[in-house]
């Protein structure tokens, strides 16, 4: 088995088996002696722990559950700016990486309490936080498991924000339909969840597809848009093939294909090279692109 296959299998195992168990258990709070030694200590991974994580680990090791809750409440009610700043994103990343899995959503709630709309939180806090987590991984400041757990938390937060009143819209008489899915080989669903939130906010009927069923669904059902999310260059050829297949089998001859994700940042031409109609730089622009393309006359 080659190194690429090993990496792919490890990613699949962590994402489908290990990560769900960690996210639903107390395994995220390790023994004190494996994480905390002295002020400014470092984790076994070699990454310096955020101060908040150190404090929570110390309290958890001492069994002070009530004190942990008090500290969490104090941190989340601390003064936050009325507008999004780089510090907001940094604090969110620290919260996502912290031992207390509820801290990140508590920070989102604090931003909501201060009047920031959910769409702004999604685009200006959570999306940059995801990018920053990716940068930490690329720079070897976080390991794969840390980033995977944090992204899993982030995906859960996006779903909870999407369920809030801020993104509920009246259903129009005729709903445009979109099918959203990760590109073949892509394991992360955060980008799909983010885009789904904004399409739903705009009144679209959104459904999620999978690599196993998206072609059969396009044959049976008429979708206006299919959107792929991709973060890794090694799956470019698979995405190019999938786009061709979409157009070949689609029940709707005017199907619009959008692509997006970290891989396309600063490379809008890459989507067209792959055969897509357009590249979305973020979730909000994906909706605007789709709506503008639908208004254009169809040559078919």
In words, what does this structure look like?
The protein is α/β, with parallel strands linked by helices. It folds into two domains: 16-166, no CATH class; 170-295, Rossmann fold. The chain contains 13 helices and five strands. It has helices at 3-23, 32-35, 51-62, 65-76, 86-97, 103-113, 118-138, 144-162, 190-201, 214-220, 236-249, 268-274, 283-295; strands at residues 177-182, 205-208, 225-229, 256-260, 278-280. α1 (3-23) crosses α8 (144-162) and α5 (86-97) runs antiparallel to α6.
Number of strands: 5
The outline comes out as: globular
Q: How would you characterize the largest beta sheet? A: 5 strands, parallel
Number of helices, where a helix is a run of at least 4 consecutive DSSP H or I residues: 13
Strand order of the largest sheet: 2-1-3-4-5
State the helicity in percent bands.
55-70%
* Proportion of beta-strand residues: 5-15%
How do the helices and strands line up, and which of them pair or pack?
Elements (H helix, E strand, L loop, with lengths): L2 H21 L8 H4 L15 H12 L2 H12 L9 H12 L5 H11 L4 H21 L5 H19 L14 E6 L7 H12 L3 E4 L5 H7 L4 E5 L6 H14 L6 E5 L7 H7 L3 E3 L2 H13 L5
Parallel strand pairs: 1-2, 1-3, 3-4, 4-5
Helix pairs in contact: 1-8, 5-6, 5-7, 7-8, 8-9, 9-13
């Amino acid at each position: 088995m080659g190194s690429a296959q090993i990496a792919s299998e490890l990613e699949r195992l962590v994402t489908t088996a290990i990560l769900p168990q960690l996210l639903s258990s107390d395994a995220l709070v390790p023994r004190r002696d494996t994480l905390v030694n002295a002020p400014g200590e470092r984790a076994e991974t070699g990454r310096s722990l955020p101060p908040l994580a150190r404090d929570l680990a110390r309290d958890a090791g001492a069994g002070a559950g009530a004190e942990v809750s008090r500290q969490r409440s104090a941190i989340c009610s601390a003064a936050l700016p009325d507008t999004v700043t780089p510090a907001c994103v940094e604090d969110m990343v620290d919260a996502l990486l912290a031992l207390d899995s509820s801290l990140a959503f508590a920070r989102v709630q604090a931003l909501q309490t201060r009047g920031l709309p959910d769409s702004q939180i999604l685009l200006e806090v959570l999306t940059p936080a995801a990018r920053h987590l990716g940068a930490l991984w690329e720079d070897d400041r976080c390991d794969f498991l840390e980033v995977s757990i944090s992204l899993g938390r982030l995906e859960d937060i996006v779903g909870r924000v999407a369920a809030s009143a801020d993104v509920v819209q009246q259903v129009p008489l005729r709903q445009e339909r979109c099918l959203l899915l990760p590109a073949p080989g892509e394991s992360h669903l955060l980008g799909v969840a983010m885009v789904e939130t904004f399409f739903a906010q705009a009144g679209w009927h959104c459904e999620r597809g999978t690599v196993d069923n998206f072609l059969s669904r396009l044959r049976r059902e008429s979708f206006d848009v299919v959107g792929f999310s991709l973060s890794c260059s090694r799956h470019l050829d698979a995405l190019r093939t999938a786009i061709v297949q979409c157009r070949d089998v689609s029940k709707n001859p005017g199907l619009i294909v959008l692509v997006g994700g970290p891989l396309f940042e600063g490379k809008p031409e890459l989507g067209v090279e792959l055969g897509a109609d357009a590249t979305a730089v973020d979730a909000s622009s994906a909706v605007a692109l789709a709506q503008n393309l639908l208004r254009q006359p169809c040559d078919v």
